[in-house]
Amino acid sequence: MLVLGIETSCDETAVALVKKNECKFGGKTIKEIVFSQTKKHTIFGGVVPEISSREHIKTLKKITQRILKKTNVKISDIDAIAATCGPGLNGGLLIGSNFAKSLSIGANKPFFAINHLQAHILISRIVEQIEFPFLVLLISGGHTQLVIAKAYNSFEIIGETIDDAVGEAYDKTAKILGLGYPGGPKIEMLARKSKGENIFILPRPMIKKKNLDFSFSGLKTAVRRKVEKTNSKEFTTDLAYSFQLAVSECLIDRCSGGINKFLKMFGKGYFLMAGGVASNKYLRKKMIELCEKKGMFFFAPNPKLCVDNASMVAWTAIERIINGEKGDSIKFLPKPRWSINEL
Ligand code: KG4
Ligand code: ZN
Q: Which of 59, 197, 211, 224 has the fewest CB atoms found within 10 Å of its own CB?
């Protein structure tokens, strides 16, 4: 089974050809091209939707042609065409889904409208045999959620952010520190240089609250206040370290509660990290320590599969096909807001 996946929900234009393994679980990316637009958005300190749409239009067809040429695969050899249809920026979603629909009509192949968050969650199963139910910490630029994955198409959100997403907090803090966009990798790299000796006192929003929700907007504001008082190279390094430490402690507290709830319900299982922020090595280490303490199996995919990619889009279509789904109507319209509760 061979599926073409298309991802255009934010600032990456990505196309991938993914094959299901024949005799065992999982699958393999035959070829993927990710065209990152970050350089175009850097000077604005964040993603500009109009620029993002224009870039998707410019690159999507070229990338798709290159994938087919390099793999020597004809469109007629492909079993289905899948595109992210939400959540995300409407312009990008329209461009990617219309392109996929056109290919699907032209080649007479089924079209799959893919939920981006479901794709972030399921992609781990392309490489690791992780059985349902499992617990997921989904942390990206737009989302921060604790999710129980009950089946390939059934998800329960048990906690989520009441304001900024973690990735958004990293990006906004990096902007305040003058580090540029995207902020996540920049803060992680800078924090690594700190000796951790001069830790700034920053808030730990939601810690010890009974529910499992998150909050990150206060953290960024606290960083801004510190910056207004002083600024030096060393100061920025220590502040980046202190910010990441605060984020990790908030995540550990919330995930600890989530794991307790999951273990009460199911006894044992996997804890997964998903989404762009899950590529952060420091946060991964902290989550591995937490899982060891709690007796949960831990898994986080290769960083390339954490950030936005098209393999996860194609793989989600494969999971749906394995479960007997035939595809979506060409009339399916993108949903800029599309919760995984609504699948
Ligand atoms: O999943 P993703 O690629 O796109 C969305 O669906 O939002 O996530 C992008 C987010 C950005 O906010 C970026 O700063 C963050 O992931 N990110 C990181 C790291 N790499 C990417 N955050 C912290 N540490 C990283 N190493
Ligand atoms: Zn994403």
A: 197
